[in-house]
Amino acid sequence: MLPEYFTIYLVGFSGVGKTTVGAKLAKKLEASFFDIDAEIVKKENKEIVDIFRIKGEQFFRFLEVEMTQKISNKRNKKKVISLGGGAFENIEIRHCVKEHGVAIYLSACQQKIYKRIKNKTNRPLMKNNETQGKMSAADLKKQIQALMNVRLENYKKADITIAIQSKTVSQLVNEIYGKLV
User: Fold this and answer.
1) Rg of the chain over CA atoms, in angstroms?
2) What's the gap between Cα 161 and its chain centre?
3) What is the rounded distance in angstroms from the CA atom of residue 63 to the CA atom of residue 170?
4) Of 95, 106, 107, 154, which one has the greatest count of Cβ atoms within 10 A?
5) Closest to 9 (Cα-Cα) out of 101, 121, 76, 113
C-alpha cells in the first residue's frame, strides 16, 4: 500500500503521455497533479518554445530545476509530477526525485514517438534551428534518435519502467498503480 505521503514522478521522452497518464493516475490515487512544463509556462507567461527562443535552453533548464524543487517541496500529501522530456538529464532533478519519491519511466520506441509528435509545434528541440520551423520527417526522426540515445541512460535510472506500446491510458494507469500498491 502507498504511504500517506508520496510523490510519483513520470519521466520519459516528449510524446510518451506523461501529462495525460499523470493526470489520470493522480485522479485514481486522489493525489495532486503537477506538470512541470505547464507550471513553467504559467510562471513565465510564455510558451516553452518562446522561452527557448528568447532566453535559451540553459535558462529553461534552470527554471525546470527550480520548479521541480519547488513543487517537490510542497506540502501536498500525495503528488504526481510530470517532468519534461529532458528534465531527467539534470543531476539536481534526479537527486530531487530520489529524495522525494519514485520515478516511473514511460518508454516508447522511436517510431511511436515520431508518430505522436510529428505534427506538434510546441516542442523546442524538434524545430529546425535555422528557420525555427518544422523539421523534415527525416530530420525529425534523426533528432528523436539522437536525443533518445543521449537520454536513455538517465531514463533507465528511474525506479520503474513501463513500456507504453499499444496500451491505452487506462491500461498504463492500472499498470503503474499495480506496481505501486
Assistant:
1) 16
2) 14
3) 31
4) 106
5) 101
Rounded Cα distance, 96 and 72, in Å: 7
pLDDT (average), residues 96-107: 97
C-alpha torsion 162→166→172→176, nearest 10? -20
- pLDDT surpasses 80 at 65: yes
The residue type found at 2 is L
How far apart (Å, rounded) are the C-alpha atoms in residues 108 and 22? 16
| Domain annotation for the chain: domains and CATH numbers | 6-175 (3.40.50.300)
- The pLDDT confidence band at residue 33, using thresholds 50, 70 and 90, is very high
pTM of the model: 0.91
8 Å CB contact between 11 and 83: yes
Query: What is the number of helices (H) and of strands (E) in the chain?
Result: 8, 5
Q: How far apart are CA 24 and CA 88, in angstroms?
A: 22
Instruction: Tell me which residue has cell 506538470.
Output: 35
Sheet order of strands, 6-11 included: 32-35, 78-82, 6-11, 102-107, 160-163
